[in-house]
Design a protein that fits this description.
The chain is of the alpha+beta class. It has helices at residues 7-12, 21-44; strands spanning 52-57, 62-63, 66-68, 71-76, 79-85, 95-99, 111-114, 120-123, 126-131, 135-144, 148-158.
Amino acid sequence: MTRRTGMKGLRKNKSGGIEGLPLQLMIIILIATLGTAIILGWMGSLNTPSSIGSVNVESDDIVLNETSGSERYTDVGYVKIFVTDQNGDGLGGATVVLVGCGAATKDGGTVHGVTDDKGYVEFIDVHASLRGSKIGFITVEVSRSGYGSDSTAKIAVIA
């Protein structure tokens, strides 16, 4: 007579069915705990990234007062820029470039400078011009390594 093994036979056999489970469960819990601890430790050492907070133009709009053919131009006496970091503190060492409306130095070079320790940079005798239009804008481009760049500030040029 042959013995049938069915569901009844499996239920009666209780040996060895769960032997390895507690050890495997302990290993999985240990790995998960160590992985979580490593990730939390790594995340705890992250710092908020540095960035340029704001760029403020502390001089008036530029009003062009002289004409040469179809071009209106002026020599701007003074442009002052103040740059802050994300905390509102003056950002020293940032490069500032004035771009647009023919912004140039007296000798025709690019208008650029570096902010001092308090976050200020000043430009004297900047040449600006407009051709045909009555209004334009000089874009203030600011950048610093580790802080990124910002070109949101504008100086209005009015003919």
